[in-house]
Amino acid sequence: MNKYIKLMLISVTFGLLFIMTCNICLAEELVLSKYAGNYAGKTVTVCGRVASIFYAVSQKDEPTYINLDIAYPNDPFFVIIWKQHRNKFSDEFFKQLAHKSICVTGPIGISRQSNKPFIIVTDPSQISFEDTPISVYQVASHIGQYKIVKGFVSSTFYAKDQPGNPTFLNIGQPFPNEKITVIIWGANRENFIEPEKTYLNQFVYLRGIIQKTSSGKLIMSIIYPNQIEIFDPNAGTNVVIKRCPKVGVY
């Protein structure tokens, strides 16, 4: 690795560490499901992908549970819709939810049973669908927003000796001219199968919050395998051909 690349890598890494330390600093009230518990009692917007839905007709008040990013019982965050509000939501609404990326707004509560964060939804306006992909060449216009980004993984690097042990996936162009860099921190790497090899030279859909580091780089933090999918650009619109989680992870 030449000196220039090493300096750039260190700059990006420390910029990313700054963002990781304050969770979602650049999107002040927009958070990923994994970090929702840090905002207990506050009204925020939590974004993620629907992993499972369950209508608990045998439970008191017949709640509907919507689990984000990982299916129950391993979900990091869930939504509750009580029976008294369910009639505001059509059957078609629940059908559309399956595996869709959504953002949910409301006060964060913490479950006494599971100690997991949740939001109670009483109106459809609290849930927005985020399933229209944008090109990697449009990301600069969407900083601080949760988006689905489509692009080509041009280069990768597993910086196992750098702080946080990040894996970098450079989208659109090889480093250092990438349009956006995906970061998978070492703490989340166990959810994936050698991501620096799996996603290299692949077309992918990315789901996450677009951020800008202190060094001016655009990045997206990937935690769960359902945030990144390989697709075939010649197979038609939105045709996913591969998800690459480890066993037991959605």
Walk me through what this model shows.
It is a single chain. The protein folds into two domains: 3-25 and 131-242, Nucleic acid-binding proteins (OB fold (Dihydrolipoamide Acetyltransferase, E2P)), CATH 2.40.50; 30-129, OB fold (Dihydrolipoamide Acetyltransferase, E2P), CATH 2.40.50. Helices cover 14% and strands 35% of the residues. It is built from four helices and 16 strands. It has helices at 3-21, 83-86, 91-97, 195-198; strands at residues 30-32, 43-55, 64-68, 77-81, 101-107, 109-110, 117-120, 127-129, 134-135, 146-158, 167-171, 180-184, 203-212, 218-221, 228-231, 240-242. Strands 1, 2, 3, 4, 5, 6, 7 and 8 form an eight-stranded mixed β-sheet that branches. The longest helix has 19 residues, at 3-21. It is globular and about 55 Å long.
Task: Write a concise keyword list for the protein shown above.
250 residues, OB fold (Dihydrolipoamide Acetyltransferase, E2P), 8-stranded mixed beta sheet
List the helices and strands and how they pair.
Blueprint: H1 3-21, E1 30-32, E2 43-55, E3 64-68, E4 77-81, H2 83-86, H3 91-97, E5 101-107, E6 109-110, E7 117-120, E8 127-129, E9 134-135, E10 146-158, E11 167-171, E12 180-184, H4 195-198, E13 203-212, E14 218-221, E15 228-231, E16 240-242
